[in-house]
Structure formats: structure tokens, C-alpha cells
Description:
alpha+beta; five-stranded antiparallel β-sheet
Amino acid sequence: FANNGSIEPARRQWYATYFAGRVDSKGSFNPYHVMGFSAQGGVSTKFYEPEIAAYAKTCNFTVNIRPEQPCGFGLAVSWNSQKERMKSKAGAMGFGLYAAGNRDQQIDTRMGELYSKLVKNGLPVSFVTSTTALQHWRGSNPLVIFDAGNWSAKDFEAIKRLNENGTAIIAFAESKLNPAAAKFFSGMTAKQTANGIKYKIRHHGGAPVVLIDEPSGPHLRELVNMILTVTGMPLDTSTHLPVTTFISRDALFLAFGDQSDHNRVETVTVAPAAYYPALKGKKLAFIDMDRNKRITVREIKPGLYSFQLPFPATSGRMVMIKATE
Length: 325
């Protein structure tokens, strides 16, 4: 909790990461963390009244609010794609293996860079998983699959099953596809956004499959907007804030984070039922968890709501959306 500095950057990190989940090798969804803090999460050298209040609130949130169901987008990686990169020059490093070449070739680095680019531009990635777990996963949340050009035929068997059952697939791959990837991504239509981001798309049973080159350039926000539109999951803020979506105690939570250095009011637009179908057709209450007050919202059209959220500099904010009937 930032022993010698402001509590806000630390709180922003908790909001951005604590409430994420994972799908384990058995195909079960779990929170990513358990309750507990290291030594620097205890008594600070700058532990005055504001820090004590923030500490108590963060502890209360993390003890009483836990991700219980998958919500938002999942990010999946493949061990097979890493093996393709390792080839015969694999070597031991830490707890695993690394690919030939520099650090940019390692799966953890490359996945982290993709995650960072998407999340910092507003894509609500709320759980991570692997192809091993996808063999047993029965969820229907949209999946972002990484390094898809190197995935194996067995990997794509799981992806095909999920897609046929209603899971949207957002795939990132370099231009060269292996035979299994080329087969899965056949029959797609080429498109591009207003600023020239090229992608391919097809629909199968109503669930889209989108293929995109490795993301780069100045128009990542437009790319994220395209993904949210294609998957039918509207969620946006004025400045595309990072947000973690999760479900706890029959309510949808939006955990926003920011590290900018100015105060402002964000306009948030969201379709709650797209993230938690149990809210469809219900009368909803929007609660500002940090200020403990109800938020005034405007229904733009059936199921799509807009509201304003005050945002201090380098701050974390949490909103609960719950049915009232």
C-alpha cells in the first residue's frame, strides 16, 4: 500500500488486478488472489488518517467482494505456440522454458504486452486461461486468443466447440498461419476500421470470429471499440479507462483504474445485461462503492445506460450494478 507515498496509486493497482479471475486446468473459474498482504501491506511509515481510511476500505472490499462468476473477456494462451518458438534452442530459465532469441520472443512477455495494450485502451479483460483449461471450459465469455497462428489442431478443437456454443473469438496472430490455424480461419471477410486497422471476420451461429494482426500503432482505442461492438458488449468511458468486470453476490461490478495526474468527471456507458445476463429486463440500481451513494443514470436505449463518475487523479473507483426487483 505504498508505504512511503500516496495511497491512490496502490489502490488503483488493487482495483485493476485484485478482482481478476482465472480458469484453471480443470475448467473451473476462480478468483486470482486469496486474502492476505505482505509486510508492506501492513503498517506504513506514512500511516496517517487518510491512509488508515483507504487501507480499511481496501481490506473490506477485498475480504467481502470476490469474483464468483466469469464476466467480460478472457485472455487465452497456448503452450503449443511457445513450443513452436522454442524449437531446438530451448533452455532452462526459472520455473519454465524460454524460446530462442531475446525476451521479446517469450510467451509471458508477449502476452503481457498484448494484455497491456488492450486493457489500457478499455477492453474489460477479467480472466486469463490456457488451451489446457479450454479443453474443459464450458463458459461462453468472449475469448481473446494470443499468437493464434501457432496454435495446434487440438487447441482449435476446443476453440471450435466453444465458438459453436456461442463464444466470440478475437484472435491475434502474425501474418503467417500454420495449417491448423489456416483451416480454422478460412472463409472470412476482410474489413478495416475508419483509420485503416485491418481485420477479418465471420459469424458461426451468431458468435463472431475475428482475426487481427498483432496490434500496434496509434489507433488501439479504435481497435478496442471495434471488438466491443462486434461482440455486442458496450462498455466505455470518456478516456477509455482500464476496467475489470466481475460478478459477486448477484451483482455486476465495474472496477476502474487510472494513473493520470488530473481530476475530471468520466461519462460511463454500459449495457449491464451483456456482462451479466441475469440483469436483463430488471430494474437496476447503480451504486458508487467509494462514496457509498446511489448514482443517477440515464437509459440511452433499452438496456444501455449512461452515468457520470467523478474521478480524482491516480485513482481507483468501483461501481456496483444490482437488480432491485
